[in-house]
């Protein structure tokens, strides 16, 4: 058995491994390895249809893997941002947060914040309103 035959068997085994994958990121990573192995096998064994096919599939798999990684990263950023925003808005309670304010205290704080925001926008308008 020649080492090119071993390379072909390894490439075939990697294709089989892609069919056993249940998530896309590992599938694309193994498919890229498979493409590299088949490119080497096709070139060394002079099997040009296999070589051409996997030369075409290699960039396709790389681009698809990059799209998956970037979209996962974007979803993670959106998820973390939305959790942080929810904590700021009080939708999610942090375990280290202070206990809830009574309704009177909350109304007082909201009114104070509104006055402060208005004073930053237009000092003359707030002075007339008092």
Description:
This protein has 5 helices and no strands. It is mainly α and 130 residues long. The protein folds into 2 domains: 95 residues; 30 residues. Helix 1 packs antiparallel against helix 2, helix 2 runs antiparallel to helix 3 and helix 4 packs across helix 5. It starts with a helix and ends with a helix.
Summarize the structure.
By secondary structure, the chain is mostly helical.
Keywords:
single chain; 130 residues; mainly alpha; 2 domains; 0% strand
Mean pLDDT: 77
Anisotropy-based shape: rod-shaped
**What's the count of strands?**
0
Name the helicity range.
Answer: over 70%
Radius of gyration: 30 Å
The low-confidence parts are 92-97
Along the chain, the helix and strand elements come as HHHHH
**N- and C-termini, Cα separation:** 95 Å
Largest sheet properties = none
Give the helix tally. 5
Label the structural class. mainly alpha
Integer count of domains = 2
Strand % is under 5%
């Amino acid at each position: 058995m020649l080492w090119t035959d071993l390379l072909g068997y390894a490439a075939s085994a990697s294709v089989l491994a892609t069919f056993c994958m249940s998530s896309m990121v590992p599938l694309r990573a193994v498919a890229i390895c498979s493409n590299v192995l088949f490119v080497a096998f096709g070139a060394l064994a002079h099997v040009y249809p296999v070589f051409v096919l996997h030369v075409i599939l290699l960039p396709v798999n790389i681009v698809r893997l990059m799209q998956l990684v970037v979209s996962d990263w974007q979803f993670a950023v959106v998820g973390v941002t939305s959790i942080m925003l929810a904590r700021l808005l009080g939708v999610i309670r942090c375990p280290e947060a202070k206990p809830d304010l009574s309704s009177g205290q909350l109304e007082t704080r909201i009114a104070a914040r509104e006055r402060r925001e208005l004073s930053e926008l237009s000092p003359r308008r707030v002075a007339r309103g008092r």
